[in-house]
């Protein structure tokens, strides 16, 4: 038994050691990814459940690693947030998404683009000016941009977050609370924040109508949205039953694989055309 314990310990040390090395390597690769053009954006349509029109798209980052292939954002965004490189990456995302929105608008497809804004980005002193400059540079009306922030953004410095989001909102940008219900939700945030959209996290949608608790949570968020006059967006909609339920329950917008997975710009354009011709 003692020998086994020792073996286990050695195995444990070796695996922790490997994890540290892999993380260091990931960080190193990440630092060159932007300059080496390894990032691109994909866009997932947001559908109005009442009119069944696509009213916007969420931009999501993809990293094509030269050796490892596609690395999911859940794996590298947290690393980029810890080492601060999310500031530069996030600015690239915003710039790229605005460029795309401007192109689509000039092609007769004026969609609203939703961009994820990390709490680390929101903490930057010049973030509001940087965002406004980006809109100006691409000649995009502020109403065409939505910023998705998580509840984490409100935690470190509530006053600072309130002040910045108010400035962005006054300029005409809309603000969505992403992953609503999974973080340190507080109704105080909703009261103080200039928020217009609530996104029901996909973990509550996955087992909608199967799990009673999830269904009740989704209902509660929809009702909360109604009473606070916020638009509710359901993410992770994968079935016709979920769409039907959410629509009749009064949820206004939805995105998910049931409509489309996130797509590259060209495919996105084709998807919008075919969806609207149905
Ligand atoms: P998120 O903002 O909550 O984005 C929703 C995630 O759900 C996306 O994963 C999307 O591809 C996925 N999804 C969409 N529809 C469905 C569905 O029907 N079923 C399931 N199971 N999943 C669905 P993705 O693209 O891997 O992104 C993961 C997370 O990485 C995002 O979660 C967001 O927190 C972060 N992220 C992605 N792009 C960016 C970015 O540009 N900036 C920042 N700061 N974070 C980003
Ligand atoms: Ca999001
Ligand atoms: Ca989410
Ligand atoms: Ca998330």
TrEMBL record:
Top-rank lineage group of the source organism: Bacteria
Domain EAL: from-to ranges: 23-276
Coiled-coil ranges per UniProt: 1-36
Protein name according to UniProt: EAL domain-containing protein
Organism annotation: Marinobacter azerbaijanicus
Section covered of the full-length record: 403 to 680 of 686
């Amino acid at each position: 038994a003692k020998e086994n314990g020792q073996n286990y310990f050695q195995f444990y040390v070796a695996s922790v050691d490997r994890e540290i090395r892999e993380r260091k390597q990931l960080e190193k690769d990440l630092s060159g990814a932007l300059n080496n053009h390894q990032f691109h954006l994909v866009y997932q349509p947001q559908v109005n459940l009442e009119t069944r029109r696509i009213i916007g798209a969420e931009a999501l980052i993809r990293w094509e690693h030269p050796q490892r292939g596609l690395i999911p954002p859940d794996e590298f965004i947290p690393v980029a947030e810890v080492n601060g490189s999310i500031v530069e990456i996030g600015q690239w995302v915003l710039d790229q998404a605005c460029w795309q929105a401007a192109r689509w608008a000039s092609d007769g497809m004026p969609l609203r683009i939703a961009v994820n804004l990390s709490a680390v980005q929101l903490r930057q002193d010049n973030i509001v000016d940087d965002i406004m400059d980006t809109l100006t540079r691409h000649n995009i009306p502020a109403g065409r941009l939505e910023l998705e922030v998580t509840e984490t953004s409100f935690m470190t410095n509530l006053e600072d977050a309130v002040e910045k989001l108010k400035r962005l909102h006054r300029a005409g940008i809309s603000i969505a609370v992403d992953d609503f219900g999974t973080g340190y939700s507080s109704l105080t945030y909703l009261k103080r924040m200039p928020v217009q959209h609530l996104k029901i996290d996909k973990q509550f949608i996955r087992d909608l109508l199967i799990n009673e608790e999830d269904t009740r949570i989704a209902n509660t968020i929809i009702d909360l949205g109604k009473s606070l006059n916020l638009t509710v967006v359901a993410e992770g909609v994968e079935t016709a039953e979920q769409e039907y339920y959410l629509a009749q329950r009064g949820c206004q917008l939805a995105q998910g694989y049931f409509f489309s997975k996130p797509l590259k710009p060209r495919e996105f354009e084709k998807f919008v055309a075919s969806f609207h011709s149905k």
